[in-house]
Amino acid sequence: xxxxxxxxxxxxxxxxxxxxxxxxxxxxxxxxxxxxxxxxxxxxxxxxxxxxxxxxxxxxxxxxxxxxxxxxxxxxxxxxxxxxxxxxxxxxxxxxxxxxxxxxxxxxxxxxxxxxxxxxxxxxxxxxxxxxxxxxxxxxxxxxxxxxxxxxxxxxxxxxxxxxxxxxx
Length: 169
Hints:
- The chain has eight helices and two strands; from the N terminus they run H-H-H-H-H-H-H-E-E-H.
- By secondary structure, it is mainly α.
- The mean pLDDT is 93.
């Protein structure tokens, strides 16, 4: 029952995130609140990267090398998750384009959703070892996934709202 609730909550948050990105205008995705802060698209990439990182941990990766072996193309997501890119310096594989963000997000969010859907009591209580944060139970990872994507969606929505608000000249 709890597994179903976690899975449904994930589906809801993931859809909210998708809707937020899909509804953003191109100039909004490029918006930087300040020069030394991440743009809206960069915040989205960091959230996707963080979700991907948790996904590979749930799939059994205990080192970054194992995570890269699972999908060498996703090294940029792992870098984004670990703060490996400074504001304005994300690679060309992570453009400020909603279609590109959504294409990669769909793969990651679906993988996480599949893990959470199959999350039984044993997986929830199992301790998973990470290469950056020690060990966490499946419940703790599920909570971090839900918080990460929900928090990123909230930040992005606030910034888009700020962009759309009339500003005095």
